[in-house]
Every structure is written in C-alpha cells, then in structure tokens.
C-alpha cells in the first residue's frame, strides 16, 4: 500500500521538463532557454552576445549548464566513459567498410557482412548492458520507491586486437513502485544512465544552492529518473549521507559493472557504519583503493588513448579533435588517481568553480523558442577557434554514424525518418539557405553538393569527408 501523502506530493510536483541534453560521443550539449533570442539582443544580423547578456544567460540556466558539464566530465574522466569511446570507435570502424566507393558519395550500403553484423550486435548489447534502462522505463510517470533488487547475468564484449573478448557482469534489476495516474509496478536495469543522471542532478542542485545562498536544494525533479540513484541508496542504507552515496556512485564509474559496484560499495559502507565506523572514513578507504587501482592501470590506459588518436592519423580535423580529447582524458585520469571523487568534494566544499581549472566547459548551444528556425540558436565555445572547429567536424562525424546504426544503409535511413543537421538552427552559410531541405532531412548529402561543386565543406561536410578517410577531395 502506498502512502497517500506520497501520491499527493508526487501529483503536486512540477511537470518534468526538458532543460538540456549532453550528446555522448559528440562532446557538446544543448540548453533549452524557453526564451526568445530578442531578449538577449540577438538578431540574424547581430549574433554576438555581450558580456552582460552572457552572464544573464549563465545565471538563468546555471543548474542546467552545470548538470550537462558534469556529463561531459564523466565521459572523459571515467572508465565507463572511456569504455563507451572504445565501443563507439569499433562501431565506426565497421561503418567505414560499407561506404559507396565513389569519393563524392555520402552513401553507406549498410552492414551486410556476417562477421561485421555479429560484432555490431556485440557492441550494441554491451552498450545496453552498461547503460541499463533509460527514463522511458518510467512510462512518463514518477518513481515512487524501490521494492526489490535482483541480478541478471549479461555478457559484455570489448575490442581486443582484431576481435572481441567477452566477460559476464551482474546487472542489478530494480523492481519499483511507480505512479502515472495510478500505481504501477515496474522494473529497471540499473546502470550508467541512472548513475550519470543521479550524480549530475544532485551536484547541480548543491551547486545552485551554494550560488544562491539557499538553506536547502530546490528538489524540483524529485521522483524522476534524476532521483532513482538517491532513492535506491536510501532503500539500501537509510542513514546514508548524500555526499557518501554520491562519492560511491562516482567510484562505481571506474568499473564496468558500475550498477553492481555501486550497490556493493553501499552495502559495505552500511555494514561498517553499523559496526561503528563513520561514513567518511569508509568512503576514504574505498577512494584509496580506487586510486591504487587506477594507478596500476595507468600505462595501459594512456597507451589506449594514443591508439585512439592514431586511428585518425592523416585526417586533419579529426586528428586535432581527438588529440585534444586524449590529452584532456589523460590529464583527468591523473586527477582521478590523486582524488577519485574530486567533483563531489569540490561541490560539497563550495568550490565548484575550481572544476573549470581542471577541465573547461565543452561547446554548447542555447536553444531559443522563436518560430523562425533560421539562426534561431546560439552556439558558444570557451575553446580556441581551431580546436572548436575540429570538434564540430567530430560532432558531425559522430552524428552521421549514429543515424546509420543498426545495420541500416543510407537509403533506409532516409526513408525511415528526417534527421536535422546539429547546426541547422545556428548556421548562416549560403548552403543552409540554398539547400535547406537537405540540411533539415539528410545533412550528409550536403557533402555531395560541395564535393560536386567547389569542395568548400561546411562542418558537417568535413565530418563526412574525413569519415571517408580524406582531408580534401583529390
């Protein structure tokens, strides 16, 4: 029986809203402003934000900016984040074997080779096992409370030479009570998704509280995917402190079976707490163990980063982009060795601004609500121009690949749905005006327009060009 007070509280919660999205593998995020661009003096002719307007946007969207920044940090600084990079690069390698040999064509024929299909199935299954369920498992409703935890053995596979090596991991399956007009019983696979979202939400709430001088957080997304982590932690260990479970969650991201590891760590700290050891001491012992583990694997990790970078040798923009990312990743790995939970500690010490001394914010886009879609949104960067340009080519390269996943050829992709260029709402190039329909529905074809005309490629066209292994058209 669910307490009626809980139901009443849930019904009174603010409606869940989209506030931002971090794009894994693309290294940028969007922020939904719910405002018109004119409120910041932006027009088609004037697309420069004054310092004053930038500060206004940052202050208004601080929590969302911080939330998505934490996702970027975790993608580059955790074993789980880097495992996804390795899998993603393997998937892209398969994709490159199926291009139309015509150098001026953006077409892929899809994955038909049996071995390639088998490997792609392994990659997709592994990504699913690590990530676990997503927000859709809540059926648009609220997560009231966990009921039970069991484990499901799942096989995961990782690139090893020219093949894959496989292991089994135990994935937590959480049975829970939900509410969507009425009570329902659901189950979710607890993995990277709920850990990522839980950490980012709790830290953005704490950082916002510090900035605004509040006594308590604005918990406006309670009982959603953002608080599954918290509710599971309290279900297992009712006396757990927020800093404790967030530290354990970050530590768990250094292990492939992150969901099981989080629960194991939590139970260990609970047992020690019941034996008289304080939570801070227990967490510090686990941090020390994690730091030693990371140090022991440091050489192999750094070597892997060099291998990733060498994949793109001879492709100017992608080499520059991955060189930048690899150097940041190696630096962050050493920061993790020194303090495996540095982001949690800095936020709870009211020093969240110091995170920017460790890693700058990635590129971002403010999305405005104007009906006119031309030059509607603002694309910002804190990086130097050459690096930012290279990362935009990498973003396009990844978008092109993702829209062709799961064996599909280009003709099937185009028949199935429309796929806007990521820059569709912030691009003022003549190509965007003269070939708007292509940019809106099948942006990879913009490569063909340029390849058959003047070889002057936009960011997306450059991404396709370098995916085909070229720097410029012969």
Helix content: 40-55%
How is the main sheet built? 4 strands, mixed
Please provide the ordered H/E string of secondary-structure elements.
Answer: HEEHHHHEEEHHHHHHHHHEEHHHHHH
Overall 3D geometry? globular
Radius of gyration: 23 Å
Unreliable spans: 1-17
Q: State the domain count.
A: 1
Question: Helix tally?
Answer: 20
> How many strands in all?
7
Report the portion of residues in β strands: 5-15%
- Report, as a whole number of angstroms, the end-to-end distance: 70 Å
Mean of pLDDT: 92
Would you tell me the structural class of the helices and strands? alpha+beta
Q: Strand order of the main beta sheet, please?
A: 1-2-6-7
Explain what this protein looks like in three dimensions.
With 474 residues, this protein is α+β, with helices and mostly antiparallel strands. The protein has one domain. It is 52% helix and 13% strand. The chain contains 20 helices and seven strands. It has a four-stranded mixed sheet with strand order 1-2-6-7, sandwiched between helices. The longest helix has 23 residues, at 316-338. The chain is globular and about 75 Å long. The model is unreliable at 1-17 (pLDDT under 50).
Quick take:
The protein has one domain. It is of the alpha+beta class and 474 residues long.
Offer a few descriptive terms.
474 residues, alpha+beta, four-stranded mixed β-sheet, three-stranded antiparallel β-sheet, globular
Write the layout of secondary structure elements.
Elements: H1 4-12, E1 20-23, E2 28-32, H2 51-60, H3 62-77, H4 79-96, H5 114-131, E3 142-160, E4 163-179, E5 183-189, H6 192-212, H7 228-236, H8 242-252, H9 258-274, H10 279-296, H11 298-311, H12 316-338, H13 342-348, H14 355-358, E6 363-367, E7 378-380, H15 385-402, H16 410-416, H17 430-434, H18 436-441, H19 445-451, H20 459-467
Parallel strand pairs: 2-6
Antiparallel strand pairs: 1-2, 3-4, 4-5, 6-7
Helix pairs in contact: 3-4, 3-6, 4-5, 6-8, 8-9, 8-10, 9-10, 10-12, 11-12, 12-15, 15-20, 19-20
């Amino acid at each position: 029986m669910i307490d009626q007070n809980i139901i009443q509280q849930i019904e009174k919660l603010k409606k869940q809203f989209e506030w931002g999205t971090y794009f894994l593998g693309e290294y940028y995020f969007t922020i939904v402003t719910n405002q018109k661009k004119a409120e910041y003096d932006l027009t088609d002719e004037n697309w420069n934000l004054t310092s004053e307007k930038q500060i206004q946007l940052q202050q208004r969207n601080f929590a969302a900016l911080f939330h998505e920044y934490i996702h970027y940090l975790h993608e580059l600084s955790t074993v789980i984040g880097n495992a996804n990079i390795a899998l993603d690069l393997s998937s892209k390698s398969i994709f490159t074997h199926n291009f139309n040999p015509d150098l001026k064509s953006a077409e892929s024929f899809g994955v038909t080779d049996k071995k390639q299909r088998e490997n792609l199935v392994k990659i997709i299954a592994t990504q699913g096992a690590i990530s676990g369920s997503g927000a859709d498992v809540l059926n648009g409703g609220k997560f009231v409370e966990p009921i039970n935890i069991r484990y499901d053995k799942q096989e995961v596979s990782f690139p090893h030479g020219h093949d894959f090596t496989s292991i089994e991991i135990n994935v937590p399956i959480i049975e829970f009570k939900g509410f969507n007009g009425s009570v329902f019983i659901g189950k979710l696979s607890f993995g990277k998704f709920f850990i990522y979202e839980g950490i980012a939400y709790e830290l953005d709430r704490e950082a916002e509280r510090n900035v605004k001088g509040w006594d308590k957080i604005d918990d406006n997304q309670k009982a959603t995917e953002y608080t599954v982590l918290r509710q599971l932690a309290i279900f297992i260990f009712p006396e757990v402190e927020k800093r404790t479970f967030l530290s354990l969650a970050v530590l768990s991201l250094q292990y492939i079976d992150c969901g099981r590891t989080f629960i194991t760590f939590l139970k260990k700290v609970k047992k020690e707490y019941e034996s008289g050891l304080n939570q801070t001491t227990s967490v510090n012992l686990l941090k020390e163990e994690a730091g030693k583990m990371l140090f022991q694997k440091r050489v192999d990790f750094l070597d892997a980063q060099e291998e990733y970078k060498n994949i793109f040798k001879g492709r100017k923009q992608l080499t520059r982009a991955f060189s930048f990312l690899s150097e940041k990743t190696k630096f962050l790995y050493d920061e993790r060795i020194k303090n495996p939970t540095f982001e949690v500690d800095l936020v709870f010490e009211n020093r969240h601004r110091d995170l920017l001394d460790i890693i700058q914010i990635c590129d971002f886009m403010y999305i405005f609500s104007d009906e006119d879609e031309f030059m509607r949104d603002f694309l910002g960067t804190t990086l130097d121009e050459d690096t930012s340009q290279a990362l935009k080519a990498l973003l396009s390269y990844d978008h092109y690949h993702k829209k062709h996943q799961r064996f599909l050829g280009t003709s099937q992709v185009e028949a199935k749905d429309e796929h806007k260029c990521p820059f569709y709402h912030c691009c003022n190039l003549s190509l965007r005006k003269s070939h708007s329909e292509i940019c809106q529905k099948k942006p990879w074809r913009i490569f063909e327009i340029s390849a058959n005309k003047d070889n002057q490629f936009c960011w997306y066209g450059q991404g396709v060009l370098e995916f085909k292994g070229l720097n410029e058209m012969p």
